[in-house]
Amino acid sequence: MTDEPTADLHLHTTFSDGTETPERVLEMARQAGVSAVAITDHDTVDGMARSSAAAAACGIELLPGIEMSSCSRQGVEVHVLGFLFDATHPTLTQHVAEQKARRIARIHETVKRLQRVGVTIQAEEVLQVAGEGTVGRPHVARVLLKHGYVSSVSEAFSRYIGTNHPGFVPGSTLSPAHIIGVIRAAGGIPVLAHPIYLKCDPLIEELAQEGLLGLEVYHACHPPETVRHYEQIADRLKLLKTGGSDFHGDIKEGQPIGSVKLPYALVEALKQWKTTSVP
Ligand code: AMP
Ligand code: FE
Ligand code: FE
Ligand code: ZN
């Protein structure tokens, strides 16, 4: 008997703050027995060509994916996943280019603030650690770790770069509605990521009124009762359900690829929405 096909629709690579290359992530997905994946790097689609080639080599289906981490509501960062969009659509390509520039400027400001409290790391080193990927605070954390200012990535956040700590620089102030609009303009399906981090159910309903189409019901950080809770909300609001491990490599423990395996029917539902939606 063949195993039922499964999907993991939330994975990061070296094109954002993951520690593994697209080739390695696809190979790990194959080993984990996952049949379909979405690579959802933060604010970028630069890795898509390499992911696509690697997926073909591994016999895995790749869905176009992104995690837009460039919006906030009342100062709280909101992450919106996008699936099955046209990665060449000008609204999307312009948005990701702007976010790339904003992220680089933010790192320069972060480093300035850290220097004021005696932490003498350089922006150039952080950018070098990020390499081809969109730069973010996890790369600052790795440099702080390397130079012995902290003994773990989580300590870097709790002492230096987490919200309201000395090196914290606010992120993007774009609204979630704007981000939802960018994904929909490119023909994609916007999905609210890991709602457990927000713990704000009324926000899900507001975003559904603003064009949100899905909820990440299944996530490595959602225990069974949380899954049931968000399944009910998704059903009530007629939102598509997605999920994934949110794999980042060895910097985030306990979230290996395939730790969340979706029934393939949920992928079919995403595709079905695409075929029935009016462009
Ligand atoms: P940025 O997009 O630059 O604001 O960085 C945010 C990213 O940092 C998130 O997407 C997470 O992957 C990671 N992150 C946030 N908080 C923590 C934490 N406390 N420990 C480790 N990683 C974190
Ligand atoms: Fe991340
Ligand atoms: Fe996220
Ligand atoms: Zn993520």
Q: Could you give a short description of this structure?
A:
The protein is of the alpha/beta class and 279 residues long. The chain has 2 domains: 6-88 and 175-276, Metal-dependent hydrolases (TIM Barrel), CATH 3.20.20.140; 95-161, DNA polymerase, domain 1 (Orthogonal Bundle), CATH 1.10.150.650.
Overall structural domain count: 2
Beta content: 15-25%
**Number of beta strands:** 9
Radius of gyration: 18 Å
Q: What is the chain-wise order of helices and strands? A: EHEHEEEHHHHHEHEHEEH
Question: Which ligands does the model contain, each kind named once?
Answer: adenosine monophosphate, fe (iii) ion, zinc ion
CATH topology of the largest domain: TIM Barrel
Question: How many distinct helices?
Answer: 10
Strand adjacency order, main sheet:
4-5-6-7-8
Which spans have pLDDT < 50 for at least 5 consecutive residues? none
Look at the structure and give the CATH class of the largest domain. Alpha Beta
> At CATH's second level, what is the architecture of the largest domain?
Alpha-Beta Barrel
CA-CA gap between termini:
40 Å
Most strands sheet: 5 strands, mixed
Instruction: Indicate the mean pLDDT.
Output: 95
Helix-strand category: alpha/beta
Sum up the overall morphology in one term: globular
3D structure, described in words:
The relative contact order is 0.17. A five-stranded mixed sheet has the order 4-5-6-7-8. Strands 3-2-1-9 form a four-stranded mixed sheet. Helix 1 runs parallel beside helix 2 (48-58), helix 4 crosses helix 5 and helix 5 (137-146) crosses helix 6. It is an alpha/beta fold. The protein has helices spanning 22-31, 48-58, 90-116, 123-130, 137-146, 153-161, 176-185, 201-209, 224-237, 264-276, and strands at residues 6-11, 36-39, 61-63, 65-73, 76-83, 189-192, 214-219, 240-244, 262-263. The structure holds adenosine monophosphate (AMP), fe (iii) ion (FE) (2 copies) and zinc ion (ZN). Residues 10, 12, 40, 67, 246 line the site of zinc ion (ZN). One fe (iii) ion binds next to strand 4.
